[in-house]
User: Which sequence fits this backbone?
């Protein structure tokens, strides 16, 4: 696998700096609040994010008023949104790889995430995601692989 | 990178404080195991005085191993470990941060309470300093070496017993030097040589163990 | 253009498998003869020891076994390290194949040491520096085998085992010197048997022959075991299926 012509195995951290991966697991610690979780995630990813920006990202994903509650008390959907809030702070990261981003999200949250994805692509980023959910985007170039298609 | 290190340390400290029962369990285990020795060997004071350093060290060893299980397991379960592997921060740095907090939270309490337990064994007061210092130098080494074992056995069945089997042979030199320091001080030879060696072990372990553990984590997470 | 003997030809299980079989057979046969000859020297030719009488003769098994136990660990760590560095399948298989034989020799060294200890020291076990570090070596072998047994994925098992073996190999000198120090500090053992004083040439010859025999035995068993591991891991490939059919 190559990124910008270089084998990713050799690039390691350089490649990962340009990647946001949000997988099936939320990577949220139950004992930390959504805000604390997001702070740590950004620090590990090398992103600079102040208090205000973190709060703003969480509010954008519909978690207003819940930023400081321990993640343990949040619902499934809220936890997923807390995990996805990272995307709001990752516009500068070129590649997004998302595994089932729309799972457990209601209509409002889904459209919010779709908005984030569209914005990112509009700014020249790339997004790769796997989903069961039908999502429509207007983009410059899209490659769709349908794993359930019958020939 | 330093920001990320600080973030990991703060994160782990917060988690430890909010789940303080984990920390206390290890400490209590240590105290109980130390108390088992007199029960098994008999209350004769001279005998207890002789075995005190060894007994306390063995208990510290076992308590360390108990705590090791949890170093990576929780992060592995909720997906945060995966994020660390894919982060922009070198994994060795992240592991080093976690190891530091691990020691602060499980090793340091043992070091602080050991003198009290040593008094139960009627260990002469002048030896308490050597004992505490040996534990202070040795418990981080145990944690660092143990982290490699914990990383290798991540997610495997057989869990604690397998981890112990892997890690105990590697602990042997630390135990020998650690208990030996107080024992030679007791016969008047002074524990300096052993303490210096423990210091050397610590320096080497601190330099290499985080990276080896990071390698082991990558192998386990593939 | 002729390249000469192509070693890399044998780095795939498919080509190595038949070679391993032939080499194992050859080395195994030599091993049987060497051990027989060595035992003959040890028990019939070598003179009676002035101090220890006949009991010392166990040295002909004990010492070569101890040499093998340490040598095999280093070889195992070497192959494991090679596999880790270059991602070659066969190196990992060799390391896994060597481990049980290494553990066996460690056990033999400990057991024969014990049998030697009883008539000479009056006790079955002594926390002598060598016996203690040999015991820890046995635990290191067991740890390696246990770790590999606990991991289902062979690639992960190879690499994890490699890390463990390498950490262990670095630790062996440390363990040995710590134990030696601990032992001398404690003045525990009342006798030191560190070397058989001024060994007669026949005794020495006997030990060397036995060592060679053990070495060839180790190579033969390791190769045979490697063959089994190869068949198991490559069981879905054509050549393995052909071989299995041929055996049936």
Assistant:
């Amino acid at each position: 696998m190559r990124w910008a012509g270089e084998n990713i195995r050799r690039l390691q951290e350089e490649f990962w700096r340009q990647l946001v991966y949000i997988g099936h697991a939320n990577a949220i610690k139950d004992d930390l609040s959504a805000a604390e979780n997001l702070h740590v995630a950004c620090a590990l990813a090398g992103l600079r994010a102040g208090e205000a920006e973190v709060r703003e990202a969480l509010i954008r994903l519909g978690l207003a008023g819940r930023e400081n509650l321990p993640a343990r008390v949040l619902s499934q959907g809220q936890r997923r949104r807390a995990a996805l809030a990272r995307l709001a702070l990752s516009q500068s990261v070129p590649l997004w790889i998302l595994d089932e981003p729309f799972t457990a999200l209601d209509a409002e949250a889904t459209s919010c995430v779709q908005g984030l994805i569209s914005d990112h692509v509009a700014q020249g980023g790339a997004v790769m995601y796997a989903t069961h959910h039908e999502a429509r985007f207007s983009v410059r170039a899209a490659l769709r692989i349908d794993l359930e298609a019958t020939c | 990178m330093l920001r990320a290190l600080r973030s990991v340390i703060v994160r782990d400290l917060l988690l430890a404080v909010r789940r303080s029962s984990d920390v206390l369990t290890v400490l209590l285990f240590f105290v109980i195991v130390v108390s088992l020795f007199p029960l098994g060997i008999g209350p004769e004071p001279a005998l207890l005085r002789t075995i005190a350093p060894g007994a306390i060290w063995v208990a510290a060893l076992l308590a360390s191993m108990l705590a090791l299980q949890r170093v990576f397991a929780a992060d592995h379960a909720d997906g945060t470990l995966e994020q660390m592997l894919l982060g922009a921060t070198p994994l060795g740095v992240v592991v080093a941060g976690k190891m530091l907090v691990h020691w602060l939270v499980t090793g340091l309490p043992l070091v602080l309470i050991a003198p009290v337990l040593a008094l139960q064994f009627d260990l002469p007061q002048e030896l308490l300093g050597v004992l505490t210092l040996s534990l202070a130098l040795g418990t981080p080494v145990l944690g660092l070496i143990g982290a490699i074992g914990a990383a290798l056995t991540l997610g495997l069945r057989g869990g604690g017993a397998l981890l112990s089997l892997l890690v105990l042979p590697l602990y042997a030199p630390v135990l020998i030097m650690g208990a030996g320091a107080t024992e030679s001080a007791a016969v008047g030879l002074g524990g300096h040589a052993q303490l210096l060696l423990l210091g050397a072990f610590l320096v080497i372990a601190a330099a290499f163990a985080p990276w080896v553990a990071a390698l082991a984590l990558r192998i386990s997470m593939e | 253009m002729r390249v000469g003997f192509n070693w890399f030809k044998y780095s795939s299980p498919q080509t190595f498998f038949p070679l391993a079989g032939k080499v194992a057979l050859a080395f195994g046969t030599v091993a049987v003869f060497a051990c027989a000859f060595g035992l003959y020297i040890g028990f019939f030719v070598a003179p009676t020891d002035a101090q220890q009488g006949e009991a010392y003769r166990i040295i002909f098994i004990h010492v070569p076994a101890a040499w093998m136990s340490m040598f095999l660990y280093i070889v195992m760590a070497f192959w494991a390290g090679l596999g880790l560095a270059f991602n070659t399948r066969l190196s990992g298989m060799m390391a896994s194949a060597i481990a049980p034989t290494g553990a066996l020799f460690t056990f033999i060294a400990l057991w024969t040491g014990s049998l030697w200890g009883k008539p000479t020291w009056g006790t079955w076990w002594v926390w002598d520096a060598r016996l203690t570090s040999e015991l820890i070596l046995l635990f290191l072998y067991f740890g390696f085998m246990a770790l590999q047994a606990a991991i289902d994925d062979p690639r992960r098992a190879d690499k994890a085992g490699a890390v463990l073996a390498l950490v262990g190999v670095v630790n062996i000198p440390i363990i040995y010197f710590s134990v030696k120090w601990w032992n001398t500090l404690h003045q525990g053992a009342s006798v030191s048997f560190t070397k058989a004083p001024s060994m007669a040439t026949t005794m020495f010859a006997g030990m060397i022959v036995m060592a060679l025999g053990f070495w060839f035995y180790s190579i033969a068993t390791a190769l045979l075991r490697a063959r089994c591991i190869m068949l198991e891991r490559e069981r879905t490939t054509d050549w393995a299926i052909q071989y299995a059919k041929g055996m049936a």
